[in-house]
Structures are given as C-alpha cells and as structure tokens.
Amino acid sequence: MKFAFQLQPVLGHRERIEQERAGDHARALADQLAAASQRDQIVGKRDALRLRLIQEHTQFDAETLRASYTHLDYLDRAIVVAQQRVDACVAVTERARLQLVDAAKDRKVLETLKERRREAFELDAARADQRELDDQNARTHERAHPFEGLPS
Question: Are 21 and 100 in contact (CB under 8 A)?
C-alpha cells in the first residue's frame, strides 16, 4: 500500500503562495536597494560639490557661487525626498518579509503534519507486516507440530 497525503493539494497551494511571497519580497528588496542607490548618488553629488566649493571657492565668481549654493540646497531637498522613498521601501520590504514568514509557517505546518502522518502510516504498515509474519509462522508451526498442545 502506498502513502497518500489527503491534504497534498492544500500543501501545493501553500507552496505556491510562499513562492509568490518570496517573489514579492525580492521585488520589494530590489526597489529598496534601487532607492538607496539613487539616494547615495545624490549624496555623492552633494558631497563632491561641497568639497569643490571648499577647495576652489576663491576661483569662483559671485554668480557661480550663488548657483552652486542654490544647487546644494536643491540636492539637500532631493536627499530628503530620496530618504523618504528609501524609508517607504523599507516598510514595504518589511511587510513583504513578514508575509513571506507567515506563508513559510503555513507551509511548514502542513509539511510537519504530512511527515507525522507518513510516520504513522509506516508504523501501521510495519505492524501489519509483523502480524502477517506472525500468522504465517503460527500456521507453519501448527503444520509441523499438529499434535502439540493437545491433551494426551
């Protein structure tokens, strides 16, 4: 007799849900990394411009200095916006991670149940085999010794 898990379709469904959640998490994480990369690029541009202003400010005319400081202000505001995007992406990634963890738990519960039912099935099968062997041995012994155990 072969083991058949009655809830196999449910387990398959939960595995698919977990795979979907893993994909959602991967996409959210990729978005988070992209947002962080964009923020880091803006921070790099701002830092480079600040360094240039510090090192070369005496060589700039008033209009260039004003434009540079205005651009620095713009970059500072862009960094704030970029950081807000990163923070939003972090929140989305965390929600996706929690959903993935929940889906993995749901699947694991069914896998544990399946394993326990398989173990019970195998134990029952082993017991049935042992009973069958015991019956065969008893019949063989009875045939070999037909008068044993009868009153004399």
Answer: yes
